Amino acid sequence: MSKNNNIKSVVPAGRRGWFSLPELGVKLCLNPAESTVYRLFLAHPEGLLADDLVLHWQELSDIYAHESCFDDPDLREDALISLCSESKRVFYSNISRIKRKFIDAVGARKAAGYYIKRYPNGLYRTRATLA
Asked: Does residue 1 sit within a domain?
């Protein structure tokens, strides 16, 4: 089986935070922080290191501005500062919640192709792609 067969497509479902998994006929909703993290990783199939999130500040800011209902730039910045903090606690909790939502929606086996995982080389990535 080729690697390309393992790539799963994800489609934004029109409203903020909603994603459709067309291969499974399922929709699920992520909160703005989760959706921001997920969209960042969909845009970087090569994967990212947790410590490098701050290097993608502008991209995160643009995504979060679209996903969030916060009109106040200071509130958006505070949320991103928490996400990119040195402790990575907020990042890790978002990764965990994203995984849980996919597992709850489609089961552990099917969800494995969609959620963000840490690989042995330290990179976090998803096998899903934005369709």
From this structure: no
Q: Which of 5, 3, 27, 4 is nearest to 17 (CA)?
A: 27
Which residue, among 15, 40, 11, 36, has the nearest Cα to 26 in the 3D structure?
11
Spatial separation of the C-alpha atoms in residues 85 and 101, rounded to whole Å: 24
pTM: 0.91
Q: What is the pLDDT of residues 80-96, one digit of tens each?
A: 999 999 999 999 999 99
Q: What residues contact residue 85 under an 8 Å CB cut-off, 6+ apart?
A: 91
125 domain-assigned: yes
Backbone dihedral angles phi then psi of residue 81, each to the nearest 5 degrees: -60, -45
* Number of domains, the chain: 1
Q: Which DSSP string do the residues of 12-41 spell out, in sequence order?
A: E-SSTTEEEETTTTEEEE--HHHHHHHHHH
pLDDT tens across 40-56, in order?
A: 999 999 999 999 999 99
